[in-house]
């Protein structure tokens, strides 16, 4: 009886460790996101308040790979692709600050209660949480909006052939979100194969 209790205790500790370890990625994403935003705010003038070119244009843009990748400084009061920027400020606060906060708390609860996620899914979820929290910090503590600074040349569809400006947090959400979906599809495929073999 005591041996079984010890086994359950050890299993519980190892399970908790597997859930806590990926949170390192959450904190790393938040840290890198906020450091890069701090540097952008202090060293690059806001290009959404001044023209890209003209007098002292170097203050508004830093080329990384020529015109393909540039660092600029803009503020986004809405979400991705500036969706919702035309809404009243009170609506934006509720939709883009408080609702994401509730969603993040819900994801944290699900993350710790669910024992079915595999390793890749756990790391992916924590990466998405890091990105979500990184932008949420901006929404609560930067009244002008989220700091975006990565500007890429994209010759298809978008105006001025530029991909909408983004940041480290956005990248983490997209990349880790894609990894989670891939892992989820792979898991479904494995489960279906096992079910067929069982029949």
Give an overview of the whole structure.
The chain is an alpha+beta fold and about 200 residues long. It has one domain. It contains five helices and four strands; from the N terminus they run ααββααββα. It has a four-stranded antiparallel sheet. β1 and β2 (about 70-75) form a beta hairpin. α4 runs antiparallel to α5 (about 170-199). The longest helix has about 30 residues, at about 170-199.
Q: What order do the helices and strands follow?
A: HHEEHHEEH
Integer average pLDDT: 85
Q: Provide the spatial order of strands within the biggest beta sheet.
A: 1-2-3-4
Rg over C-alpha atoms, rounded to the nearest angstrom: 21 Å
How many β strands by DSSP?
4
Write the layout of secondary structure elements.
Layout: H1 2-20, H2 23-43, E1 62-65, E2 69-76, H3 89-113, H4 119-141, E3 146-153, E4 162-166, H5 168-198
Antiparallel strand pairs: 1-2, 2-3, 3-4
Quick summary of this structure?
The protein has one domain (2-198).
Give me some keywords for this one.
four-stranded antiparallel sheet; 60% helix; alpha+beta
